[in-house]
Write a structure and sequence with these properties.
The protein is built from 10 helices and 18 strands. With 343 residues, it is of the alpha/beta class. It has 2 domains: 173 residues, Quinone Oxidoreductase, Chain A, domain 1; 137 residues, NAD(P)-binding Rossmann-like Domain (Rossmann fold), CATH 3.40.50. Strand 17, helix 10 and strand 18 form a beta-alpha-beta unit.
């Protein structure tokens, strides 16, 4: 038996005892040290996620120790410290092999079908998804590999260059880790916007040159441009609030590029005239691929950017409901909240 965190219904989290899952021949069993609460988990918590629907064992960010391996597992050993790239797919889209797992027409992630989420004492993963953690990377930092990979992929889609002037719109965990990825690409002229001062302080700690609180500021676009000395080469949209797509276009210089990183649930207006007459670009961005995950882990291991500063809380499993609440309501200056097991 093991303890597992369920989202039972909208805004209802329970810890239950369930059977420890069995592994197949090509799978490993991980004793979970920590699991992270992600923004997409909050969408599930609120009943808004497009494919993770309650009741579900939640979570897809994980770090822990391998305690059992299937008979066909060749490159992972019992005792290995690992994290996981939590998506399964062939890369096939409309009959074509794309080489991109995130393009898969049939893509599976924890919390879908029979694959239980990571927020449990034990988690089953195919060997192919295992990412070894270097000894220098703690579990608390290692669990950030997956959300940082989102930022790395966003930086790739944006084609971030060292001299770029970059705006990151939203200082939640994904926004902050996207900033880290942008900084790792060598871009120093960065600004981060949000409505919470404590989140913006985290952005400063991660290397943002400027920040701006846009709460009740109808003139923030002009002010942000003034702070940075002009319009932006790249804008990364990491908050899915109404009007933010057009705001990103207003920030861009002619020929600039905006990338949508956040999850969107509502319709967004789009000023097509700016795209067409000013040759601005709006690019979609979905999860990551293995090179992004590897680059994310390299950033964490290098320790040049203090990505662990995004961690605001480390709670025991019995406090999981509290963790979801404070993330959803942005209470207690919460940013990235980890749920710890087996301490």
């Amino acid at each position: 038996m093991m303890k597992a965190v369920f989202v039972e219904d909208a805004e209802q989290v329970e810890v239950k005892d369930i059977d420890t899952p069995k592994i197949q021949d090509d799978e490993v069993l991980i004793k979970v040290a920590v699991a992270g609460i992600c923004g997409s988990d909050i969408h599930t918590y609120k009943g808004l996620h497009p494919f993770r629907k309650p009741p579900v064992v939640i979570g897809h960010e994980v770090a822990g120790e391998v305690v059992k391996i299937g008979k066909n597992v060749k490159h992972v050993d019992i005792g290995d410290r690992v994290t996981v790239e939590p998506q399964l797919g062939t890369g096939e889209s409309e009959g074509e092999m794309t080489g991109h797992i995130n393009y898969s027409d049939k893509r599976l992630a924890p919390g879908m079908d029979t694959w239980l989420g990571t927020m449990a004492e034990y988690f089953v993963s195919p060997e192919s998804l295992i990412v070894p953690l270097p000894d220098s990377v703690s579990y608390d930092r290692g669990v950030l590999t997956e959300p940082l990979a989102v930022g790395v992929h966003a930086a790739l889609k944006a084609d971030i260059q060292p001299g770029d002037r970059v705006a990151v719109l939203g200082a939640g965990p994904i926004g902050l880790l996207t900033l880290a990825a942008v900084r790792a690409k060598g871009a120093e002229q960065t600004v981060v916007t949000d409505v919470l001062d404590y989140s913006l302080q985290k952005a400063v700690e991660l290397g943002a040159k400027e920040t701006h609180n846009i709460k009740e500021d109808n003139d923030w676009i002009r002010k942000v441009k003034e702070k940075m000395g002009g319009s932006f080469d790249k804008v990364l949209i990491t908050a899915g609030v109404p009007g933010i797509v057009n705001d990103s276009l207003k920030l861009l210089k002619k020929g600039g590029r905006a990338v949508t990183v956040a999850m969107f649930h509502d319709q967004q207006q789009l000023d097509v005239e700016q795209l067409q007459q000013q040759e601005k670009e709006l690019i979609g961005c979905m999860t990551y691929n293995r090179p992004d995950t590897e680059e994310a882990l390299n950033i964490i291991e290098a320790h040049n950017i203090p990505v662990e500063n995004v961690i605001s809380h480390r709670l025991g499993v019995e406090q999981a409901a509290e963790g979801f609440r404070i993330v959803d309501k942005k209470e207690d200056q919460s940013v990235k909240v980890l749920v710890a097991f087996n301490d």
